[in-house]
């Protein structure tokens, strides 16, 4: 089925398929990165807006385990 679409590509349809491919690659890469991201790093990033940067220095958590 996909082979039929690729054979009949003319003009602006190239842009449609290439934008779809770029979106899918981007979505898959981001999904993989989020899946393998450390839970400690996710917790640190989610707490960042709650900390006052003027009163304390934000330091990165120790990722060594």
From TrEMBL:
Q: Which species expresses this protein natively? A: Mucilaginibacter calamicampi
This chain belongs to the protein called: Cbb3-type cytochrome oxidase component FixQ
Which domain of life does the UniProt lineage start with?
A: Bacteria
- Give the transmembrane region(s): 15-36
What are the UniProt keywords, alphabetically?
Membrane, Transmembrane, Transmembrane helix
């Amino acid at each position: 089925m996909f082979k039929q679409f690729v054979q009949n590509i003319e003009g602006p349809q190239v842009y449609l398929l290439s934008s779809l491919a770029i979106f899918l690659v981007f979505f898959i890469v981001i999904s993989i990165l989020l899946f393998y991201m450390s839970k400690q790093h996710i917790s640190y990033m989610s707490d960042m807006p709650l900390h006052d940067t003027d009163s304390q220095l934000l330091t990165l958590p120790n990722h060594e385990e």
